């Protein structure tokens, strides 16, 4: 009988961090978790402090089997999640995208993203914002910087402000489509 703790390395699934920001669509993150688990990933969620208020934490933790991370642990406390093999930032807000590109590491979520570059962890970002936010000059510069850093960026186009959002056009599974070839090619 096999024991989970002594399972051969070949059975270990890759671990995906899903970084969730405070965008209106965040409550549907279970869709990405389901798609990733069906594609044989283990998943842990890291939410921004604001993003925590947009998701059903109990449901997400039940689905992933891991605690949601949002704040830094205290020195000496164990790491609640295994290290990431890949990261999907979905949904990514205007705010988090700009801070990440600028290296302003003031939430655990952005701190993990900033370090991911140095660790060489494949990272995909699915922005979700409106066209008024996207018109700010910082946004285009931030995307260009993230692209230079090797971050994979989804094809979603910002929606019209106050138009009810573009939830129907937001493809959660694009995160996996972007990351899978990276991992197959050894990152
Ligand atoms: C109901 C609601 C919906 C929001 N939706 C978005 C959104 O879709 N995209 C976005 O960039 N900001 C959105 N915001 C603004 C962000 O929540 C705000 O900028 C916040 O500071 C982002 O924090 P975070 O990037 O740390 O998650 C929304 C705010 C509220 C109250």
UniProtKB/TrEMBL annotation:
<feature type="domain" description="Flavoprotein">
    <location>
        <begin position="18"/>
        <end position="109"/>
    </location>
</feature>
<protein>
    <submittedName>
        <fullName>Flavoprotein</fullName>
    </submittedName>
</protein>
<dbReference type="Pfam" id="PF02441">
    <property type="entry name" value="Flavoprotein"/>
</dbReference>
<dbReference type="InterPro" id="IPR003382">
    <property type="entry name" value="Flavoprotein"/>
</dbReference>
<dbReference type="InterPro" id="IPR036551">
    <property type="entry name" value="Flavin_trans-like"/>
</dbReference>
